[in-house]
Every structure is written in structure tokens, then in C-alpha cells.
Amino acid sequence: MNQRKKAVLKILGICGFGFILALMFFLHANIRLSRDDFFYYPFLKHGMTEFFNRLKLHYQNTNGRLLVHSVCAAFLNYNLWTFRLFNIASILLFSWLLANLFEQDVNRRAGMFLTALSGFWLMGGFTAAEAVTWVSGSFNYILPALLLISYLYFLTNATNAKGYLLTFVLCLLSSVTTEITSALTLLLSIVLLFSSHKKNSLIPPFFLANMLAALAGFLFLVCSPGMHTRTAAVSSLAQAMKQMLIHFTTFSQMCWEPGGIGGMLIFSAISCGICAYKTLKRKLLSGTMFFIAAMAVLTNLGVVYSARCYIVFDLCYFAALIWFGVLLCRQGETKVLLAAICFAAAFAIMCASGIVGFRMLFLPAMCLLVIGLCALSLAQLSLGAISVGCAIMVVVSGVQVLCLAKINQKNAAVWDENQKTIERYDGGSLALQSVPDEFYFQGGVPVDNNFGHDYLAEFGIDDEVQSYAVEKQYYTAVDGQNAVVTDKVIRRYDDYYISFERLAEYLNEPHAWRYETSEIRHRGELYRFHYGARSVLTSYVGGRSQKLSDPVRIVDSDLKISVSDANRLFHLNLTIK
């Protein structure tokens, strides 16, 4: 490639980087406190004694993530731009580390960096918003991912005493952040410990020390009383296995649906397909990867709605990744296989958790990004092909970031108005708006931990908060015989929504709530709804999946389904007065 073409590609690369960076600043400029932020930011408001007491209670009753939550509390007590700049820098550093891990050719490294930075935003609307665009979400997911990648980078590049010490510190920090990164740190330490062992030689003390540090951090998290509290509802192995199957079905559905990590699935599958075709000459494997990518596109477009399909394609995807990794491992390349194992391990840990949420898909999505980047690096594409791929990813990820930023801009306006209302408050009742769009921020505010007691107490306000939401009005729903169903039907934009609790009362059917999930058993069929979903599962595991006309929403901590979907699913004739 001549110098003129290289210069043009360099200019285009700089423009692409500037475009993504500008959108990132626009997005972060509109980030406001949300959800758990209102719970963590008072930790440091009343001195260090109160701070440590709150951390102790959190460790005893919630989980063992003392590191990330203490750092989060510190950032929440400064101007939000402190967090915003830190978060942008973390994403840039994460992408730079990935580029340096998987691309040895300096001429290609800039393209790999831009690919990594663009790929970061392909994880889907729900997942990105829940992990990136609120402070606690970033410290629970971006910071642990950065620590994990930093540990892997220095673990494979340490050559002197300072490098060994830094690696050990990063190992310890990564292992005490979150449950998934703790397990993955331990997994990486064990694999690299035994892969470094040479015949007729002692196991290197450096790798052994890292493994012991990772094990200590893992035990600190897993053995916390708060973790026991979270998992106390599971009383037997059979019950635990059933719950894992339920969660596997739910997470499979969330991966492939709009707003999930379909973009990451597509990117990694195409990258692996290209690498398999170019370097391994395996047409069947490359064809399988491209077929999986095509299915991800179809499911994200809403063409395919089947729980069994989600499960089958997830299992095929796991198998194809492991197959691809094993074939590369035979040729001396172990990174893809290790990343594929980490992806499967992260998914398994999610399924074993007592909580289901889109943000939990963030770290598996990061594993897919690692796999895709490693595969692209091994494929040794030309600079021209890399440039075309980068251009496509910049445009697609730019649209993703812009959508998030516009939603955040609307929500920030409501947050700012609430702030002014509180500052003008002089007694009596206080009415605050809920965030108007739950597509990316499903928990509307105010609720208990959003503009609730902890937040208002900082302004000396203890009165009851009366909440209302933009475009929210209360209506009465009646059936064909004019029997009153509920007076709690609300309007969100042009759709009417009814709460599951009221609907279950009217149907006289069992109703269950499981962390942002509701279940109703009607005429022998179990319907399982999850917030943000545009389809409903009709059994615990592997059942049918029916498309919904409107997404399931959470408004003021209450899960709701549209009246039109309630009529169709439960054979009702509800009308609104």
C-alpha cells in the first residue's frame, strides 16, 4: 500500500476516533445519578466511622463488593465530571490494552484500537445503559473489566520485579471486585500457572503467588454473609439446578433480543468465521459462525421468537467457540480458547446468581469482544479490509452511542427539573417527576432508592414524596361486562399498561415476583415476563416464546404489561375509561 493511501487511512481513522470520542463526551455529559447511586453516595456524608459501618452492613447483608462500592461512594461525593472523565479514560484504556494484547504489528494497532473502541458499544441498548450510563453500574462492570484486562496484559508482559509486583496488585484488586471477575481472575491464574510449568522444573513462584491471591479474593467475595443472604432461597441442589436452567433460558432470550448483546454476538461470530476460513481452512466452522451471526441479526430484527431457538443457538455458539479455540490451540494459539472458556464461565456464574438483569451480560459481552479481536488479529487482514470493517463498526456503534446519549439527555432534563423543585421546596407536599423513558432506565424515579429518603434527607426533607410521571395518568379498566379490573392502569406515551399484581387479582391466579420478573399461571400455562423484554416465555425452561406488541416496563417499582398484550394472552376484553 503506497504512502498516499496510508495517509488517507490515517486521516479517516483519526476522524472515526474523534467521532466516537465526541459522542462519548456527549453521552457522559448527560449522565445523572440513578438507582443505586442514591443508595451509595450518602456512605461518605457523615464521616469515616459511618462510612465503615455502612460498608460492614453492606458486606453482611448485600454482597462482598467492598472495593467497587467504596470507590463508587468516593466518586459520587465529587462533581460528576470527575466520574465522567474517569469513565471515558477507563473505556479508552480498556480498548488500548486490548489492541496491544492482540496486535503485534504496529501498523495495524491503530485499526485494532478503533475496532476495540467501536466494538465496546455493540453490546446492546439495555446492557450498555445498565453498565455504562450510571455511576454504580460503571463501577460494578467497567472498572472490574478494566482491572481484569490490565491483569491479563501485565501477567503476559511482566519481565522485572516492578512488573511482577504490579501484576500481583492487579490480581488482588481484580479478584475482590465482583463475583464474575473474581472467578475469571482465578481461572486465568490457574490456567497460566500450569501452562507456565515446564518439564523437570519447579512451578514458577510468581504464578503461584497470583493464584493464591486470586483464590483469597474469590473466597472473600463468595463467603461474604451478604452472598449467603442472596442465595439463601435456594435450599437444595435440585432447586439450584432448576434455577440455573430458568436463568439460562432467560439470559438466552435476553442475549438474542433487541437491546441484548446481539451486536457482540454478530461481531465475534463474523470474526471467528473469517479467521476459521483464512487460517484453518475449515469451511464448516466458518459457515457455522456466519449462520449464527445471521440468526443474531434475524432475532434482533424480531423475525425469530422461540425460547427453544435461543437455547439451541446459545449451545451451538458455545460449542463452535470451544471448537474454534481447540483448533487454534493445536497450532499453539491459546488466547481464543481461554477467552471462550471465560465466556462460558461468566455465563454459568450469571445463571447461578439469584439476580437476573441485562447489565450482567456486560462481562460475557466483553469476553466476546476479546474473542472477536483475537480472531481478527490472527486472520491477518489487509489494511484496506481492516479500514472497511472499522468504518462499518464506527457508524453502527456511533448510532448506538447517539441513541443512548439522546435518551440520557431527556432523562437528565427531568432530573435537573427535580433538582430545581427540591431546591425551591419550602414545606408541604413535594411532587417529583419520574424519568420519562424506561427503555434504557427501566426503574422510573422516584422509588425508594431514587429521589427517596436518603437523597431528600441531604436537603433536610423528611415529608412524604408524591410522585408522578410524564404522560402518566390513571384510568379504570373494565372488561366486556363492565366489571372493574383496576384503577391503576396508566398511560405511557400512546400505550396503556396494567400492573401484574392487579391483573393477577382480577384473574384470580397465582402471581410471583422474582427481581424484575413476574410470573402468572393461567389455565395451566405459566407466563414469565422480564422487564424490557418484547416477548414472554410460557414455561420455565425451553417453552414457547410469544412476541409482545409492547415491551414489559417497570414504572415506580411495579412491573407492567400493556393492556393489548393482556387481552391477547389471557383472552380478556379490557377497555379503558
UniProtKB/TrEMBL annotation:
<feature type="transmembrane region" description="Helical">
    <location>
        <begin position="284"/>
        <end position="304"/>
    </location>
</feature>
<feature type="transmembrane region" description="Helical">
    <location>
        <begin position="7"/>
        <end position="29"/>
    </location>
</feature>
<feature type="transmembrane region" description="Helical">
    <location>
        <begin position="138"/>
        <end position="156"/>
    </location>
</feature>
<keyword id="KW-0812">Transmembrane</keyword>
<feature type="transmembrane region" description="Helical">
    <location>
        <begin position="81"/>
        <end position="99"/>
    </location>
</feature>
<feature type="transmembrane region" description="Helical">
    <location>
        <begin position="111"/>
        <end position="132"/>
    </location>
</feature>
<keyword id="KW-1133">Transmembrane helix</keyword>
<feature type="transmembrane region" description="Helical">
    <location>
        <begin position="163"/>
        <end position="196"/>
    </location>
</feature>
<feature type="transmembrane region" description="Helical">
    <location>
        <begin position="386"/>
        <end position="407"/>
    </location>
</feature>
<keyword id="KW-0472">Membrane</keyword>
<feature type="transmembrane region" description="Helical">
    <location>
        <begin position="202"/>
        <end position="222"/>
    </location>
</feature>
<protein>
    <submittedName>
        <fullName>Uncharacterized protein</fullName>
    </submittedName>
</protein>
<dbReference type="Pfam" id="PF19528">
    <property type="entry name" value="DUF6056"/>
</dbReference>
<feature type="transmembrane region" description="Helical">
    <location>
        <begin position="336"/>
        <end position="355"/>
    </location>
</feature>
<feature type="transmembrane region" description="Helical">
    <location>
        <begin position="310"/>
        <end position="329"/>
    </location>
</feature>
<dbReference type="InterPro" id="IPR045691">
    <property type="entry name" value="DUF6056"/>
</dbReference>
